[in-house]
Fold:
Amino acid sequence: MHGKRDRRIADRNSPGSTEQKQDICVLLDHIHGFYKAALDRLPMGAVPSLAPRLLKAGMPFGFLDPVSNIIANTVAYAPSPSPGSDDEDEEEAPAPEWILSKIITDTSDRFVFELPLCRHRSHGMTIARRSLDGLVNFLTTRFPYLYAREALSYLLLSRADHRAAVRLIERDRNKRRSASTITYRTTMVALECAAVCARHPKPNVLVKVSLITASRLSDVTTLLAGQDPLSRATLESLADLLKQEPASMDDPTMLSLDHLCGKEKKKNKKRKRSQQTSESIEGSRPHKRRLGPQLTFRSTLSLKLLLLGKIHAHYLRALAKLPRDGLRKRHHCSLLKGGYCYGPRDPVSNIILNTTWYGSMFPTPQKFELQFKVDMICTRMLARIECCCFYGLVTFLRACAPTITEHDAIWYLFRSDANVHKAIRKLKKRGHAVCDNYQDAYRQAAVVSWHVDPDALVKFATSSLSMESDKLPAILRGTLTNDCS
Structure:
């Protein structure tokens, strides 16, 4: 646990590394391809004002495919007269080659490989490079504990399509697709932060366009489909559509990002980038199998923080179940000292069980007992016991399965909701050799968890394992009732 950490795939993205520079070059190639496709579809000659608008605000993130996002964001941003005005006829349309030269990023500039870009240098970068910063920022803002280097890896795997990257991250983090609305705050904040990071001149316009395209997905995709290049009349219709107000925040048509991606793929099969990404992942496997800890890029530090988040949630549930008066008078002390979440049952029951057992076995001396009821528990003290549990869980699992790495143990525990016995069952299903004698595992876990008497905890835990499963909840309820009385 405390030795040299295992090298992970995500380590290839360390700051300034050769691998990170190569990854950024590959991602920029994908983004340049999006802009080339958008230029082929936009009537630059017929609408000269599209060129400066594209170079300022045509960014590939939103709720459509990257190319359609570039088109929609370009049309919606109108600092100059709209496409239907007569003033545009007096302008001279720039050549597509000139526009593309302003988009293609010069990779000989060493500052291009900074992640994120320095604020005073980002204004001089191309829109393609700024868009890459926006894509990374979108993912790191939307997902807690996701680092920029890890987000870069997910974008590389998804070919710079942030919608596919979102699905990969949610699959890795064991999140099920829900019917939550698109107005979920993290998604909208992530969009605005991405626009600000990419130096969009009007971030609120990009967010509004995203909301409109989400609420009127059928109309937008109908306008963008079947024309190559798009006609001037189509652009005018699209501009009018994007000027409307988005649907209500509570409208059931404001679907989740994943659901929108699925609908959009069905309506436009020619642009199934996310599906191609999935095929490229699945193509290397002869048959469908369960996900393993090596499938995609996962940072060990991110997994640690995510697992700690799950452990923290278990403690909050346990605090809610403990009797209020007993918690304020005596249980808070035993919980912070020995209320570990590993044991014979689920994490919440283990916390309650270990808390009451510790309080009875190691009572606070009378001279140190508080003469009042506590009103709160210090978050730092709670974080300490949660960290002790984290090390105890990982040590327990690795003691039962010595062949797995620290990273793999954290991953299995995360996928098992910090339930070590559920993680052991998952290991067995994947063919790992697992020891069924938990006595040594409990001893090692108690030592790394800083328990005052590891032998006593081992004896209690092993005796609880042999106890009939239907008797333990009754004993637990009786202990809590007696403590309250």
Residues 300-484 form one domain. Residues 18-41 form the longest helix (24 residues).
